[in-house]
Amino acid sequence: MKLIDKDAVMAEIDEIVRVLQKNCNPNPMGNMQECLTAAEIEAINLIKDFLDTLEVKEVDLNKELSYEDYIGFFKEHPNFTDDWGFDEAWVFAKYFFELGLAQKGE
Question: Is residue 95 in a domain?
Fold first, then answer.
């Protein structure tokens, strides 16, 4: 599973549509160039409707990172050493979690 910012994807789709519609100019024969057709607009709306159905998971860092998970990581990946310890790993996890929220605007 890969995680993306759904709001950012929706905003990017809206921006692409806005730019395409803004650049929509008729050519000398009266046909529209670089314009979205009704079918394309419908397809874009269907994609946006689908994206709206995707679950957005709220994460509680206190529930997601446990000592058991920390130890389990080193059991799964014996090539890595536990040089820092759980407390240091927690500080880094919290920092990047909060950084992600700040980027998201929360």
Answer: yes
